[in-house]
């Protein structure tokens, strides 16, 4: 056995208990993760896995080496250390770097269990469908593409060029459709030529010449062909190219069918794009979810030992404190906000049923310090130690207590039919084992945490009025103390799991990012202003912050491009449209993508978009008046024929089809974007 394998084996033996107990704690907390297989790997192996997107085998391509080199340099120069990688699979596979400390390994394990829960239960991951075995799928793709590259009949350079072309468009899919439906892209139905119908009719040549002359038939065919343009733009550009794409044959001087290996490679890479799409669509939700439960398990449930906690706290502070748009920080704060607002609504609902309390006098008559004390968890749940177990026993048949685990905890030997590690319960190390989901929810009720003190009192009168609007038993309790007894401590966690099942980042931010959240967490927007020539804070209004964030998450933060016609101008040209949202395309990059799209179409390719143009005089006047100049927006069509680019003005009706409206977050936020 190689020395590094010995090191990995030793590291793995130390992690058997933490991986086993973390999975049990996750389930106690209401999570339902896929089973997770943990693998201990070396530093180089970890970097290779990161380069391969979390898998051990991928198809041959230069992109993996580039990613590996970048990750290695980030680690080498202190710009980012790899702690964890886990893939969406059933079972999931997680990789732990053998050189990391035990505190870091525990943090990764608790983080991974939450990711595995998200993979298993979020509906967007379910769109890929079927019995998930992603590792096997990607390995099959790797072997197939490697086989093509080793085929002496196929030029390896042609394969690499073709893969480059497909990867330029890998985000041009319809990620909102189930993959089973997306595998059958919509056909563009060509109109029937009337000539063919006339052939089957009993019409004399004389009548046909008089009524259906050839010039008229030609005009009719052209009109029907033009009307056959795709009624709805097709977002799955890769699917359209897979079905209708061709290649330009230099020798023949015309387009020819794609080779079988080309269609096969395109199909495999498109399948992988659909597999990875949910991870891109839920980055904030998923990382925030994992950070939330990791923090609760490692810190509040003391999964990090006393000698490990400071190191763990430093680790999490660095992760959450990373600069830029940090999905861990934004996601965790939003999940905490959802938990707090749900719990606040539950408590307020109880208090509004107390005699003498109404939405009008709520803030005047409720003693929030008293409520804070009444909401504290039962002492027997909060301070679990070997010498306090009698207090739990005294609770009797209580739904907050795991009776079986408590019996083992107070027994000297436990049940001999159980495994040794289950025979007794070490409540010093794992106090959570003697509690149920209900008990843990009360033990960790968010509104009693010091950082949330005062959150209940900040509830708005409008929300109180809404809560009480249809409340008929508004004098159910004689006192505040009686009302607090009926508080459901699981409400916040229950609501979080509901949201985890159905949302993606766009809907998550749209639904739950409020002015209260933006103000309390100090979010704002900033823009480059032409008037000042630098970046300035432009707004702290939550609507502006929301729009700014949503633009970065809609369509993975990439421009949305769709197929508008596969026979543009009746010349077999491809017409793509950029669904403009107020942000211009980088035309230099767009032209490079058109070159790659041409390789997959075989005929000229067109791209519709809208550009902003500024008048120099208007810019100067705006600068003197300290305001932003107003640009003129013009539609253009860029055409590439395999050799040269042409720029054309866009027909008004086509410009209308790609211009932003004010309906959704693919549209133009013209209130604040410069």
UniProtKB/TrEMBL annotation:
Domain annotation SpoVR-like C-terminal: ranges: 559-610
Which ranges form a coiled coil? none
InterPro entries registered for this protein in UniProt: Spore_V_R, SpoVR-like_C, SpoVR_N
List all membrane-crossing ranges.
none
Residue ranges constituting the SpoVR protein-like N-terminal domain according to the UniProt record: 12-350, 490-557
Q: Which domain of life is it from?
A: Archaea
User: What's the protein name?
Assistant: AbrB family transcriptional regulator
Annotated organism of origin: Haloprofundus marisrubri
Q: What is the lineage of its organism?
A: Archaea, Methanobacteriati, Methanobacteriota, Stenosarchaea group, Halobacteria
